[in-house]
Write a structure and sequence with these properties.
About 30% of the residues lie in helices and about 15% in strands. The chain is an alpha/beta fold and about 325 residues long. α10 links the parallel β9 and β10.
């Protein structure tokens, strides 16, 4: 008795994305020791990196981001980052390394990938503790002090600014800038707030891959609950049901991608294991947004616990 044998006629029938084949999804899960085994569809320069604990994960990921900034500075080259709010622990290490190395971010441009919004794309005030702009300023920009990214080079996904991302990123790339995508993987396998359900709105994958952004996008109920648990201390009533978000037309332009999966709680509980396996093993499809990540050069850091074994354990 399991999900597939009981879903018909249940409250969950039709709840998940129409393109999800749960038998194929379950077949993605393998033995923990095989999680890093190379797959045919991976980019030759994509590497999953297993981390033993959260401290190691945050340090490695922070170092990877800081090193990209340093290398660009050494080359006297502009560099642009698409940045997430989640995971967040790596930012303190970005600050640590850049301040230790005395590397200025004057050559850095940042584009926050999403922000909470209403149906018209209006966003939270930057002073609101739930806003992603507030989170970024307090975790990265302010702690960098004299080495910080100039304010004019920071971009947040507001109603008026998000539509300018494509032109700004195109201009930076034309000027020789390297584009780095930093990402987390949602429980629904979204990247930014680009949900798998959006695939239904496009004629084919090629059209989906060109979509640059959405204002006031409808996020999936499971995404709302994920954020209630991870960012709002379980208080669902505080979580907006929509967001402004970049799309694959922007994040698939990345020259290098730095991913992170740290979705473990305590007492053996975790929420990101299946999403990690789906990302690494499922064939590329717009119905599983994160399945595109292994097709990009880069590294995906993840906690060892997420590899499993993904078996029942009552808590």
């Amino acid at each position: 008795m399991d999900f597939n044998s009981t879903v018909k006629g249940s409250a969950l029938e039709g709840f998940y994305p129409a393109g999800w084949d749960f038998e194929k999804i379950d077949a993605c899960v393998g033995a923990p020791e095989t999680v890093c085994d190379r797959q045919p569809g991976w980019n030759k320069d994509f590497t999953p990196v297993m981390c033993s604990d959260l401290g190691e994960f945050e340090t490695y990921m922070g170092h990877e981001i800081a090193m990209q900034i340093k290398l660009a500075a050494d080359r006297k080259q502009k560099i642009a980052f698409i940045l997430p709010v989640g995971p967040m622990g790596m930012y303190k290490w970005v600050v640590y390394f850049l301040r230790e190395w005395k590397i200025s971010c004057s050559h850095v441009w940042t584009f926050n990938m999403d922000e909470w919004a209403d149906g018209e794309g209006n966003t939270l005030s930057p002073e609101d503790h739930g806003s992603f702009q507030y989170a970024m300023e307090n975790a990265l920009f302010d702690p960098l002090g004299e080495y910080t990214v100039p304010k004019a080079q920071r971009n947040f996904a507001t109603k008026t600014n998000l539509p300018t991302y494509p032109e700004k990123i195109a201009a930076l790339k034309k000027d020789g800038a390297k584009l780095i995508l930093v990402y987390g993987i949602g429980r629904m396998c979204h990247i930014a707030f680009w949900e798998p359900t959006f695939a239904a709105d496009f004629a084919d994958a090629s059209q989906w891959e060109k979509a640059p952004y959405r204002l006031g996008a409808r996020i999936h109920p499971i995404t709302v609950e994920q954020n209630a648990l991870t960012s709002f201390k379980s208080r669902t009533t505080l979580v907006p049901c929509r967001a402004n978000t970049i799309g694959p037309g922007l994040f698939l332009q990345a020259d290098y991608a730095i991913g992170g999966a740290d979705g473990c709680f305590n007492r053996g509980m975790q929420w990101q294991g299946l999403s990690l396996w789906m990302t690494l093993r499922h064939e590329k499809t717009p119905w599983i947004t994160s399945s595109y990540m292994p097709t990009l050069p880069g590294k995906l850091f993840f906690l060892k616990e997420l590899a499993g074994p993904l078996v029942a354990e009552c808590n």
